[in-house]
Design a protein that fits this description.
Blueprint (H helix, E strand, L loop, with lengths): L1 H11 L3 E8 L4 E6 L5 H24 L7 E5 L4 E6 L4 E7 L5 H19 L1
Antiparallel strand pairs: 1-2, 1-5, 3-4, 4-5
Length: about 120
């Protein structure tokens, strides 16, 4: 179930290289990669961001800002959109070219409920 949802997101998002459903514990539940994208780089990045997401969730709670919903990280060679599904899981969409970032964000929001339901 997860793979089909994630595959649709990465296929419909221009510039997206991979998408990962990840636990905040750093364990990937499911990953989808475009042809030519290596799993090693994506896994290393998302594992590192799992701890960042936990820290950001803690910080937003301390500030009484509400629940963390989304984080975007833009680097010279990579853009990552991280969308929280609940307190334990998030989806990371990685771009080599951020031209499709808006569409990717939309698709993540659109399909978040499907992923939440599949996690139950």
């Amino acid at each position: 179930m997860f793979k089909a949802i994630l595959q649709e997101i990465v296929d419909q998002t221009p510039g997206a290289g991979s998408v990962v459903l990840m636990g905040c514990d750093g364990i990937a539940v499911e990953s989808v990669f475009r042809q030519g994208v290596t799993a090693d780089k994506t896994q290393a990045i998302t594992v590192e961001f799992a701890s960042v997401m936990k820290e950001l969730m803690h910080t937003t709670q301390l500030l009484a800002a509400g629940n963390l919903r989304e984080v975007t990280v833009r680097c010279d060679e990579l853009t990552i959109v991280l969308t929280m599904l609940d307190d334990e899981y998030f989806v990371a969409l990685l771009f080599d070219d951020d031209a499709g970032m808006g569409k990717g964000r939309y698709l993540l929001r659109r399909d978040a409920h499907k992923l939440r339901e599949a996690l139950e």
